[in-house]
Design goal:
By secondary structure, the protein is of the alpha/beta class. The chain is about 40% helix and about 20% strand. A hairpin with a 6-residue loop joins strand 1 and strand 2. Helix 1 packs across helix 4. The longest helix is centred in the first third of the chain and has 28 residues. The radius of gyration is 30 Å and the shape is elongated.
């Protein structure tokens, strides 16, 4: 009967170029490798190596079988790693969501680190508004959310402050708002504003609209595109628009009633009383580190 050790002997002998090299790799004497390969050939009824020269080489049949043997070894390693993951009590699946106003170009580094550290964990990634994410966390439909802080919801969930994001008011260079000082919110009343809200039709407490003429979207990326079409103005995360402002494709509005840079707190939220597993805790720590720097 075939054994995994015999398959290893075949693969290592072929890849390393000799039975002696295979023996060193497996910590065995060369005669044990020769015997193992002979036994494998008898079990398969196929000659795997041509031994007519000092250095054994794969026969055509051996070449064909090697590919399957390599795949079998890879599957064996995968099974061993998966078993180790289970023993470490790693979560099988995690459901996370981010507000798209928090999807910084470098934020995917966090997921890359998680993938490297926990390759067997499946991830369900969603993009929603902060208000929708919090409701889904409360209802147990999400394991972790990265959101703009919602003060009124904090007694219904567990949360951790992880950083803040700067926001700026922007408009198209052709907009009348591009050239006038905005002394009070009433100056904005005649002009259409874009604001975010999700399926529950609730605006973020940190990011409420200021004018009666509002178009809503669940995506800040879509809001940015609407501003780029000169259809209105919006507050947007600085990291989303700083390059466009520098290239004069957008204008930073002169909002005089914002006496300093407007920074919105960012929270990681999860179900109240939840005991975090190792992967969720890893993600939480990495998001803390990331958003504390931007």
């Amino acid at each position: 009967m075939l054994s995994l050790e015999q398959i290893q002997m075949l693969v290592f002998s072929a890849e390393l170029g000799s039975f002696s090299a295979c023996a060193r790799r497996m910590g065995k004497v060369q005669s044990a490798i020769s015997h193992g390969i002979n036994a494998l050939e008898i079990d398969l009824g196929v000659e795997l190596f041509d031994r007519s020269s000092r250095k054994p080489t794969l026969t055509p049949a051996g070449e064909r079988i090697l590919k399957s043997a390599q795949a079998l070894l890879a599957q064996s390693t995968e099974i061993q790693n998966l078993a180790s993951s289970i023993l470490a009590r790693e979560e099988a699946v995690l459901r996370i969501a981010l507000d798209d106003g928090l999807i910084h170009p470098d934020s995917f580094e966090v997921l890359q680190k998680m993938s490297n550290a926990y390759p067997h964990v499946q991830l369900d990634i969603q993009v929603q508004t902060s208000t929708d994410i919090i409701q889904d966390v409360i209802q147990g439909q999400l394991d972790l959310g990265i959101v703009f802080s919602e003060i009124e919801a904090l007694n219904k969930i567990d949360f951790c402050y992880i950083g803040q994001v700067e926001w700026v008011a922007v408009c198209h260079p052709s907009s009348p708002l591009a050239s006038i000082p905005i002394e009070t919110p009433s100056t904005l009343i005649p002009h259409r504003q874009f604001a975010a809200r999700g399926r529950f039709k609730t605006e973020s407490q940190q990011l409420i609209s200021l004018t009666p003429k509002v178009w809503w979207s669940s995506s800040y990326e879509q809001i940015l595109k609407l501003v780029m079409q000169d259809l209105g103005w919006a507050y947007l995360p600085n990291f989303m628009v700083d390059r466009l402002i520098a290239e004069k494709k957008l204008m930073k509005m002169k909002v005089l009633f914002d006496h300093k840079v407007w920074s919105v707190p960012v929270d990681a939220v999860y179900k109240k009383g939840r005991i975090n597993g190792p992967v969720l805790q890893f993600l939480l720590d990495e998001f803390k580190h990331f958003y504390s720097k931007i």
